[in-house]
Specification:
Layout: E1 3-11, H1 15-26, E2 31-35, E3 48-49, H2 51-59, H3 63-73, E4 79-83, E5 90-95, E6 111-112, H4 115-128, E7 132-135, E8 137-144, E9 149-155, E10 161-171, H5 178-183, E11 187-202, H6 206-209, E12 214-220, E13 224-230, E14 236-245, E15 251-252, H7 261-272, E16 280-294, E17 298-299, E18 302-304, E19 310-311, H8 319-338, H9 345-372, H10 388-393, E20 432-434, E21 437-439, E22 449-453, H11 458-471, E23 475-479, H12 491-494, E24 502-505, E25 511-515, H13 522-533
Parallel strand pairs: 1-2, 1-10, 2-7, 4-12, 10-18, 22-23
Antiparallel strand pairs: 3-6, 4-5, 8-9, 9-10, 11-14, 11-16, 12-13, 13-14, 14-15, 16-19, 17-18, 20-21, 22-24, 24-25
Helix pairs in contact: 1-4, 1-8, 8-9, 11-13
Length: 536
């Protein structure tokens, strides 16, 4: 067999696998993506991408292409509502505009775009950044030793086998992940609570919309509970049926047990509220609704991301977004270790940081599922509802790669509308200017660390550059109010630095350390913080 050497082997080339490859490439790490399907996604699947995910894509230059394609596919800024049927009674409006009230939280907006449209963009960007993608192939074995992992890859056409030697492996191979099974890692949580259906259909739905701008339409009636998403032209979309009612009125969670075309056509007509509407069924997919997280997200040299690491119901749209956050967190750490600027212990922080966030997010999705679709599952042990913005933007990491400054109440999240750049949280958004162009702190994030100081923090900036050079860690530094303009004068308040303090931001946009007035040993302080953040 032929043998190929790569720094990172990614098992699975869908949304999260391709995102991992793109983020790794951004950090200078080539990867090989092996995907058993013969190309990128052919079905829509995930459709809403929240602000944090778009921030990650913005850093690697993908946001403009995503926004342009999304605008052609879906009506953006639509409402999320509930109806008995699309043509019938309106039950509730959850959000009149999915971006209303979120504009001040990020330079990005929530975007509706489906996986079959997004994945080709991700593949192209990943390949531009050095990834190799191999479709129609599957990893049939993984054998780890002290120096790396040996994988056997088999082509689905012809069965030819080859060997791949990788320093690290990333399992992005879905909810039934063979990689996770090979690691012997169990899933823990709520288990499966619905065998659901997604029905892709074509129909002339425009007259039923009645000029309403709708992004997600929940359907609650005596026969079914689920949701509809329609493409911009309102001539195609999909219906996800989560539960149904039998003739006695009892809730039936095994909707996928009878997935014939005529039954699915009846589901679509019932959800739309027109029994005579011409409906063409394009595809039917059965899937399990669950809310589980792997007992660990890594073992040895292998890491789990996306659905391989955690599963959650679509209520809230958190699943794919959480996987993108996994990929960004892991990619910079693998890059730092492979470049020799971080200790291998940094990789241990991936599980320590991401697993608590994934568990919290899965429980938030489950809370929404029970409240909206299946209250008979019981509400006594539900996690209290937290708003979408806090789930997406407000999670907090705790690990050896974060320097706690003593302001930690142990809460899993902070309110993104009232952040103060606490270590372990996302660097808050605010309006800045550089050379006359409006930017956000996310636009200052590159491939290395970022130090942001107050207007009188020039010495912090000089110390950061010197410390970065000393440790061979890429470092960017700027005094906000000098090199970077703060037109609203809010940086010192939002980042809690005062005029002469500073914050250190990791390559994934997370605040790692915060300091007050400049001390006599400022360079040593920054160097110590960098060493801690990289587990050197």
């Amino acid at each position: 067999m032929t043998t190929e050497d790569v720094p990172v082997l990614i098992v699975g080339g869908s949304l999260v696998g391709l995102s991992t490859a793109a983020f790794l490439g951004w950090h200078g790490v080539p990867s090989l993506v092996v995907e058993r399907h013969r190309g990128t996604a052919i079905h829509p699947r995930a459709a809403v991408f929240n602000q944090r995910a778009i921030e990650h894509y913005r850093v690697i230059g993908l946001e403009p292409a995503i926004v342009d394609v999304a605008r052609d596919q879906f009506l953006q800024d639509g409402a999320i509502m509930a109806v008995e049927t699309l043509a019938g009674r309106e039950i509730d409006w959850y959000e009149r505009n999915i971006n209303a009230g979120y504009e001040e939280l990020s330079a990005t907006r929530r975007v509706f775009i489906t996986q079959n449209v997004l994945e080709p963009l991700l593949r192209t960007r990943a390949e531009e950044l050095g990834a190799t993608t191999r479709y129609g192939a599957e990893v049939v074995s993984l054998d780890e030793d002290d120096d790396g992992v040996t994988a056997v890859v088999r082509e689905r056409d012809g069965g030819q086998e080859s060997t791949v030697r990788a320093a690290y492996v990333v399992g992005a191979d879905g909810s039934r992940s063979p990689t996770r099974e090979r690691l012997g890692l169990a899933m823990r949580g709520r288990g499966t609570f619905s065998n659901s259906l997604t029905i892709y259909f074509r129909a002339d739905v425009a007259p039923l919309l009645r000029d309403r701008a709708l992004s997600v339409i929940y359907v609650f009636n005596e026969r079914q509970q689920g949701f509809i998403r329609l493409e911009r032209a309102a001539d195609a979309g999909f219906l996800a049926v989560m539960t149904a009612r039998d003739e006695s009125g009892q809730r039936v969670a095994d909707v996928a047990g009878d997935a014939g075309e005529e039954r699915c056509r009846a589901f679509v007509r019932d959800a739309l509220g027109d029994d005579d509407l011409a409906v063409e069924i394009e595809n039917i997919q059965a899937w399990e609704a669950s809310a589980d997280v792997a007992q660990r997200l890594s073992r040895g040299r292998t890491f789990l991301v996306g659905d391989a690491a955690h599963t959650m119901p679509p209520t809230g749209g958190f699943g794919g977004n959480t996987g993108i956050h996994d990929a960004c967190n892991l990619a910079w750490k693998l890059g730092a270790v492979l470049r020799g600027v971080a200790g291998e212990r940094l990789l241990d922080t991936y599980d320590g940081e991401r697993r608590p966030v994934a568990t919290f997010t899965a429980e938030q999705a489950y809370t929404r599922y029970v409240a909206r679709l299946a209250p008979d599952l019981g509400t006594d042990d539900l996690l209290a509802f937290v708003d979408d913005a806090t789930v997406d933007l407000g999670y907090r990491y705790r690990s050896p790669a974060i320097l706690d400054d003593g302001e930690d109440d142990g809460a899993p999240t902070v309110d993104p509308r009232a952040q103060s750049a606490l270590p372990g949280t996302r660097a808050p958004h605010l309006r800045l200017e550089r050379d006359g162009t409006e930017i956000s702190p996310v636009d200052l994030i590159g491939r290395g660390f970022l130090l942001l100081a107050g207007a009188d923090g020039a010495r912090w900036c000089a110390a950061a550059r010197a410390a970065g050079a000393r440790l061979d860690v890429e470092m960017t530094a700027a005094a906000v109010g000098r090199e970077i303009t703060d037109p609203d004068g809010r940086f010192a308040e939002i980042y809690a630095t005062g005029a002469d303090g500073a914050v250190l931001v990791r390559p994934d946009g997370i605040v790692a350390w915060r300091a007050g007035a400049y001390p006599d040993d400022g360079e040593d302080r920054v160097a110590a913080a960098l060493a801690r953040c990289t587990c050197s």
